[in-house]
Each structure stands twice: as structure tokens, then as C-alpha cells.
């Protein structure tokens, strides 16, 4: 059926800019029928209702702030391996549930507060804006600025200070949830790079026999690998700890030790040095008896164990750290403390 077949009284009418209703014609048979008369909201005519809406919006923004604080508290305080029962979901991870719930409430409260603010307190007068070319002429830009100023005025931010302050507080706090999540990029190293498992009184244990070492177990010219007492291969953190605490035990005639501090930190010519190369962290395993040199098999860095394990060849940047050792009352070799400088290369590469 064409528009000519529709009775004139049934055709849609259009309302002009002044609110007058006009009948559609042949040129525009489907004209805009116009907007209904504007109806004022209760908040527009009753300041008490407006105050109630203001308090509702402020309550939602405050709820968002509390939920954000709850998110941070849950992230710090809830164990990552704890499970809880939530009906009807079942057993779920307590940390994931608490993070999702608090962050969801924080974001929802901001959105709900903004929507309630717009629907009850901001201007709801219908405005007609005709389509215009993409390029904005000067008068359009001026109109945009005027509209923005008018919108800012109608939002009543200056007058509704309670809404303004709570909104700013909610928008300021909610990004903290993302900042806290940056912690999961990796654990904070703290002072872990500066310390190993070694401490005063820990016995030196042979890596091959898993037995404590006595001075007589280390022959002149031999190379023995040792670990701290109490560190076992089945331990969860074994690889992490042994990567820093692995030792080379070498016995040198005291007269052949050139470095004074090395001699003081040894026991009857038995010296203990870190097994971890200071170039890229490879385990050192090659020892030459006549020269007392040890060689890293990765990049041929060479260290002189009779002269403070200083670098004599290769790309290593500094000498191997020495562990001060002694003998306990039972006659076993023991550490007299930790290394006095970080072992391996990682610490030095990070500055």
C-alpha cells in the first residue's frame, strides 16, 4: 500500500520548532510526529526530593569507596589457597571471590550513582540538535563550548558539594585496585639477592654423600661440592636456594694462599667459594690442581682460588664470593656466617 492510499487523518504529523503540529504532505509523508509535552520530575519542583536523590547518589559513591578499600584489604589479607562454599556456586577460591565481589560493587556503585544523578538531578529537557557536516565551523565550536558550560551549570556540581566530593573520592580510589594488581607482576625481591641460606653454625654437607664434611675428608688438590645443612633435594625451594648457596670446597697448602683475607677465612688451607659464576650464573666445575684455577665451562671465565678467586681470564666481572668457615665442637666444617657480597651475576646486572 502506498502513502497515497492512507487516509490523510491517519498520516503521521510533525511538530515544528515552536511545538505546532503540522500534517505530513507528499514531500515528507513520514515526518517526525513531535515530542510529548515535557513533564517535570518531582526533584525539579521539590527540593526535599532533590536532597534525597543527592544523598542516594552520595551513598552509592561512598559504597564504591568502601568496596575499593575492601578489594585492597582482601588482596592483602585473604590467603590465595583458601576455599569457601558459596550457594549455589559451590566451593570456590576465597581470594578470587572476594576480589571479584568488591571490585564489581565498586564499579557498579559508581555507574549506578552516575545514572541516578543524571536521571533525577541533571536537566532532562529534550533538546533538538540538527545534523551538521563533520567539519565544525567556528559557530559550532562556540555552541559546543556553550553547551558544555550549560551542562556543567545544570549538573550543579558547585551547588551539590556532597555529590561532587563523594564522586571525586570514588573515582580517585577505584584506580587503586589496578595499582594493587601490579604486585602480581612478580614478587618483590627485598634483600633476597643479598643473602643466601648460609648462617653461622650451619654445617657443610657433601653434595654427593649427603654427609657433613670433616677437614680430613678434603684432600689437598681435591674439589668437593657442598650445600647447607638441612637443605634437601625434595624441598620445594631446593632449586632456588641451591642456586645461591652451592659451594666449592678446595684444600690448598696454606703457604700457597696469596690473599690474606682468604687465609683468615679458611681452615687449615680449606677454602669455600661460591660455585656460581659471576658472569651469567653457570655452575663452575673444572679445577686445575697445580695452578689452583677453576674454569667456568660456559664462557671460560677463569678464577684463581689461591688469590681470592679473582678473575684472571674471561668475561666475568668480579671475583667469586668466599664463605668464612671453621670447625665446630664435633669436628665438622661449619659456616661462620653468610657471604659478605651477593653471589652470581643477577644482582650486579640490576645495579
Number of strands: 15
What is the spatial order of strands in the main beta sheet?
A: 5-6-7-8-13
Overall average residue pLDDT: 85
Counting DSSP H or I runs of 4 or more residues, the number of helices is 9
Label the overall shape. Answer: elongated
**Low-confidence parts, pLDDT < 50 over ≥5 residues?**
1-21
**% residues in beta strands:** 15-25%
Order of helices and strands: EEHHEEHHHHEEHEHEEEEEEEEH
Secondary structure class reads alpha+beta
The biggest sheet, with number of strands, parallel, antiparallel or mixed sense and barrel status, is: 5 strands, antiparallel
Q: Helicity, in percent? A: 25-40%
Instruction: Please tell me how large the radius of gyration is.
Output: 39 Å
The span between the termini is: 83 Å
Summarize the structure.
Helices cover 33% and strands 15% of the residues. The chain has 351 residues and is α+β, with helices and mostly antiparallel strands. It has a 5-stranded antiparallel β-sheet. Strands 9-10-11-12 form a 4-stranded antiparallel β-sheet, with no helix packed on it.
